[in-house]
Amino acid sequence: MEAWYLVCYEPGKEKLYRAQLSLSLKNITVFCPMLRTWRPRTDCNGVRPFIEPLFRGYLFAYLDPEVIHPSRIEEECSGVSKFVRYGQEIKPLPASVMETLMALPACADERDVVPKAAKQEKAAQRPYRPPRKRKQRMSNPSPLQSVLYDKISRIVSTDNEMQRTAMFLALTKSFHDHTDHPGNR
C-alpha cells in the first residue's frame, strides 16, 4: 500500500537534487519542504535570503514498499542514503502529518524567517520588505489536526535547523511509539 516514508539523503544541496531526480525517475513522488531564511551578510551590514530544506538531510517519498523494495531504492538511487527506520523496519508516516505539512504556508509558499539575533541587530539597517503573508489555518480542522498543525507550526518556526529537524524526528517517533503499544490497537 502506498504511503509517505522518511528518507535520508547524502549531505549537500546537489545530493538533494540528485536524490529527488533519481526517485522521480523511478516514478516515486518526492516532497521536500523548503524554507526561506535570512542570514547576515559578511560584506556589509545587511542580510541575505537563503532557501534551504525545512528538514536538512531528510525528504519524503510516496511509494509502495511491496512494489519497489526500500533496499533497492537505497542501492540504486543516487543521492539517497537510507530510509528512516523505527526498530528494524521502515514505517509510513501518518497521512495527517503529511497533510498538515503540505497545508503549512511555509511548505506551500516559502515563508520568511529572520533569525532573532539578526532581526534585532539589523532591524534598522535592513531594506524594506513587504509584510509577511498571514498564516491561513486549515478549514474545519478536527481537534487532532488542529493539535498536529500547532505542533508542526512550532517546529517550522524554530530558527535552529538542527533543533527543527530533531523536533520533527521526535514527533514522528512518537507516532510510531504510540501505535506500537498493544493497548493502542
UniProtKB/TrEMBL annotation:
Chain intervals for the UniProt region annotation (Disordered): 115-143
Transmembrane regions listed in the UniProt entry: none
Key word Transcription present: yes
CDD domains associated with the record: NGN_SP_AnfA1
A biological process from GO: DNA-templated transcription elongation
Claim: Transcription is one of the keywords in the record: yes
Keywords, sorted A to Z: Transcription
A Pfam family the protein falls into: NusG
Coiled coil: none
Residue ranges of domain NusG-like N-terminal in the record: 3-101
Residue ranges with Basic and acidic residues bias: 115-124
UniProt cross-references to InterPro entries, sorted A to Z: NGN-like_dom (IPR006645), NGN_dom_sf (IPR036735)
Name under which the protein is recorded: NusG-like N-terminal domain-containing protein
Naturally occurring in which organism (per UniProt): Buttiauxella noackiae ATCC 51607
